[in-house]
Model the fold of this input.
Amino acid sequence: MNILDIIEKKKIGNSLNKEEIDFFIKGYTDGSIADYQAAALIMAICINGMNEEEILNLTFAMTNSGDTIDFTNIANNIVDKHSTGGVGDKVTIILAPIISALGIPVAKMSGRGLGITGGTADKLASIPGYDLEIPIDEFKKNVKKIGISLISQSLNLAPADKKIYALRDSISCTDSIPLIASSIMSKKIAAGANSIVLDVTCGNGAFAKNLEEARELARIMKKIGELANKPTVCVLSSMEEPLGRFVGNNLEIKESVNFLNGIYEKDVKEVVFEIGSIMLKLAGYSDDLDYNKSKMQEVIDNGNALKKFKELVKMQKGDVTYIENPEKFEKANYILPIYADKDGFISKLDAMVIGKVSVLIGGGRLKKEDDIDYTVGIELCKKVADKVYKGELIANIYAKNEKDAVEYSNTVFKAFEISDYPIFYKSPIIEVI
Ligand code: URA
Done:
């Protein structure tokens, strides 16, 4: 068997068998298959797709490319969550400490930014000192000791996905259902949680652009979860406009700390509470979702969720003083305000455009080895359905320098559409599968 024949087979649209998929995953993980060959095959998969059997084989090959964690000696109700990617998506950072504060252990491996979508790992890395790359023993020890650990994909967990994920990001192959489903589920299975809740985003700023694609992605991931004996629930949520007020790494950490201090944006709260109540249900906390939501509110109000977040940051060697006083976070060098040019109601705020600008001003990567600027991003002072007056502030661009801010100011301005007629707020939650 050789990689050229496998690339050729997928290039002409044929399906790959288990041996061929295993050969590719093993070879790419151990370095005997080069980046450019993997890139060719990934591009062919992206264009020609995969059938269900191929997706299942790809997922389990990636899971088996490294270690898997066994938490049975620690707990049997560990619950994990993952998002298929969004712009301004800080849900994990807020939700994980809330769930843990309710006594349900959270052990989560997060990804870095992918395409226009930000990565939880990059956001956490903006907390000075926070160590995302702890050994497996420490990951387990932290979960046992404080009931929570959030790490990046640095351990030897689904290493094939780690390589393919970074490669996809740099060759524009992020929006493929087979690649997303296998990427997410391979690492969720390897990371050892007992059950999984997936936020399947849908819309302009998501990889699934419409409901049909989002449902198909949800269906295949649920099926993989079932086969791996990990009950999996998918929450479909809208990603037509960015989630919350901020897009950018340390800006989103600040917004998350605000949330845990009880200052929240409505859309973020709806997604956090919907996913969280289902996580609690799967973990055996209570089948009553409203009750679960009320308990989530309780640990925000009594400060236990914020306390848990501080414990997490401290345990992973981060500087807790930044969480105690988020004003300490380094600020972008240049902030450019954007103003409305007419009265009306915000009728559209294009998540894809905002996500792209965020990457282009340094908040994401264009090449896999690029460094990220944690300070840059966009503040959305107005969101869909907000009333706005001519000359009123609608956004701030937080940039490295004046040149970057000015270059993208018109793009950010055009991401907003203003209608003469009132627009009504719509919940980002679409359906639960
Ligand atoms: N998150 C992942 O881990 N992988 C993807 O492909 C998309 C989102």
Notes: The chain has three domains: 3-49, 79-324, 331-419. The mean pLDDT is 97.
